[in-house]
User: Fold this.
Amino acid sequence: MSISIVILAAGKGSRMKSTTPKVLHSISGKSMLFHAIDAGQKISDDITVVLYHQATRVQEAIEAEYQNINFHMQDAEKFPGTGGAMKGIETKYEKTLILNGDMPLITQNSLEALTGGNADINMSVIRLENPTGYGRVLINNEKVQEIVEQKDCNASQLETKTVNAGIYCINSELLNRYIPQLSNDNVQAEYYLTDIVKMAVDENKTVTPIYVEEEEFKGVNSKLDLAEAEVIMQNRIKKQLMAEGVTMRFPDTIYIDCRATFTGESILENGVTILGASKIINSHIKTNSVIEDSTIENSDVGPMGRIRPLSYLKDTHVGNFVEVKKSTLTGVKAGHLAYIGDATIEEGSNIGAGVITCNYDGKNKYKTTIGKNVFVGSDSQLVAPVTIEDDVMIGAGTTLTKDVKKGSLALTRSPLKLIPDFFYRFFGK
Ligand code: UD1
Ligand code: MG
Assistant:
């Protein structure tokens, strides 16, 4: 791991039209910047993130998730631009890889290609039919000569179809020497990092173009870019999971968080959403169900089941319109229309239609504990905190407010009145 990484994340991101810093927008459940950091951490233990716009917010978000990330505050008023962003950074190792915080789709393979070899500079290059917007890379005999920003191009340079994808791996000693020499003598009056290429060429250093896929080096600048990047990331995630044996019905309708993991053989029907760091183990998730930050093992959920964070389902059947939150269900059947929150329920228990754990009194949350082989009749309310021991029956429509001992029947039921011919007396014959 003898490579330092700098991630540029100081830009304003005004095209995103958002109060959230651009790099904190998420792709498949993880912010773009974290995708970049995670890719970087696979090859480096020296990562510096350059901040300026909404610096505190971005730094706090990073610190909540990662340790050992260095921060560098760009003096963007005095030194605007990608070269300005690098001013004053000291990297630890011989080579420095420069990444952008808004490129969440780069793969480890490409990073390895960019950091390999012995060139003084490796730079990412894409061939594009329509190069509009990018810096043009002038190449001669497989050697890069110069990068010219679109706004600084002359007519013939504008025709160049090899463009700068914006990622570089540079000999750190050269980088440290060139950055102070950058000038802002260009159309945008910015300090361009790209100018170091010309400086290196003038000193007969080698600058190697590494041809990369446009899809991976897509910069995300707008909500449209964000949506397009999401589709690319989702397709990758699903393709990988299918290769590992997950069955997906109409994959285009399925959404899977990049932090979710699958073990064994599972089936996801159309419209399924898997959020957070969910673990799906040998399970069948049926149409339009949502699983969030939960573990589902040898179980089936849905159609239209909702499993909210911190739930663990094992050998369990959860049917339609059942919501489970922060609960552990082992060997349970809850077939229809129920709310199970802050509960543990053990093997052989059946939760009838319309059962509700009343876990919240408006101030605090309370636990419901249900033992083995408990039959909870339909439309019962279990007012927590409450414990139901093994082998208990709860009659339909019960409002349970006390603990129930093993083997009992619990029942609240007002006596049924039957008044013959009442209808006719009320409405007439
Ligand atoms: C840059 C390249 C261009 C390349 C393109 C690829 C330069 C001068 N040009 O252009 O050749 O084709 O990327 O996408 O580098 N940033 C800062 N501080 C700043 C300005 C930018 O940290 O003062 C960060 C941004 O947050 C972003 C990255 O640098 O992550 C790239 O900045 P951006 O403005 O998008 O560069 P381009 O003008 O697109
Ligand atoms: Mg730009």
